[in-house]
Amino acid sequence: MVDGTEKTSPDGRGRRRQGELETQVLSALGRAPGPVTAAWVQEQLGGDLAYTTVITILTRLYAKRAVTRTRAGRSFEWTPVADGAGLVAMRMRKLLDTQEDRDAVLSSFVSSLSSHDEELLRSLLTEADDPER
């Protein structure tokens, strides 16, 4: 562990995919009975993950506004704001915000969707336009 993240997947077969730890931490927080400590999160993830790694991931999620924290003695208790899907959506929005030609990016994205995804997106946009539907 050089940069605060474990270098192997939980099954020991290689590097984790980008964002995998964040998703696992958010999933654990989503199952929590309320605000929880980093030690609780570490325990939920199987305990093989270093405590400092859990703190690093929670701090990164806090910087991304995917979790909130409240002081609990000398530590913090953590609460999710977004789930795994919400975190991916935040990443997509952040990337989109960096582009000069948002129209071109969105057009390219939509044209690359499968027919199922396109129908789902159309349905979601229709619902957003007509909340009574």
From TrEMBL:
Q: Which UniProt keywords apply?
A: DNA-binding, Transcription, Transcription regulation
Q: Enumerate the SUPFAM superfamilies for this protein.
A: Winged helix' DNA-binding domain
Is DNA-binding found in the keyword set? yes
Query: What InterPro entries is this protein classified in?
Result: BlaI_family, WH-like_DNA-bd_sf, WH_DNA-bd_sf
Query: What family is this?
Result: Belongs to the BlaI transcriptional regulatory family.
The name of this protein is BlaI/MecI/CopY family transcriptional regulator
Q: Which organism is it from?
A: Streptomyces chryseus
